[in-house]
Specification:
The N and C termini lie far apart (about 55 Å). A hairpin with a 7-residue loop joins strand 2 and strand 3. The protein is of the alpha+beta class. The chain has one domain: Rieske [2Fe-2S] iron-sulphur domain (Rieske Iron-sulfur Protein, 3-layer Sandwich).
Length: about 140
């Protein structure tokens, strides 16, 4: 009986130690870029961020642009590229309220509050950036 327990435990340890460290390659579509961007909330193009539940798109920052959202409890910043799709023009997200959707055939949709996919459960969430609020200026960084 002792040998059965010993072999059972040994086999269990062997199986656990052989498990792969799964690195889902589908979450490697976005580059890890160094981002530093300042947003002056007094400027007209960013004035909508002074109100809760509004978002703005800023092109030419990050992988597909930058989406900044006023969540009501603070500001959130996301990369505007679909993390579940290769970097092609249709993978840039379009804002609609507190959601962002790609124009690719899958039309993946994400929450701009949580970064998670809506509807279909997808492997990767939106890539988030750090937002620091300093008076009327937001500083968005990836570090």
């Amino acid at each position: 009986m002792k040998y059965v327990k010993f072999y059972s435990i040994t086999i269990l340890i062997f199986i656990i130690s052989c498990a792969k460290n799964i690195n889902d390659s589908r979450c490697n579509y976005l580059l890890n870029l160094d981002i530093y961007y300042e947003v002056n909330l007094n400027l007209p193009q960013y004035s909508s961020l002074n109100f809760i539940s509004n978002s703005v798109f800023i092109p030419n920052v990050g992988n597909g642009g930058l989406i900044i959202t006023n969540s009501g409890t603070g500001f959130l910043a996301w990369d505007a590229a679909d993390p579940n799709h290769s970097n092609v023009p249709c993978s840039v997200l379009t804002i609609s309220g507190l959601e962002a959707t790609s124009s690719c055939s899958e039309q993946n949709t994400y929450s701009l509050i949580t970064g998670q996919s809506l509807g279909v459960a997808l492997t990767c969430t939106l890539k988030s950036y750090r937002v620091e609020n300093s008076g009327n200026t937001l500083v968005i960084t990836s570090f």
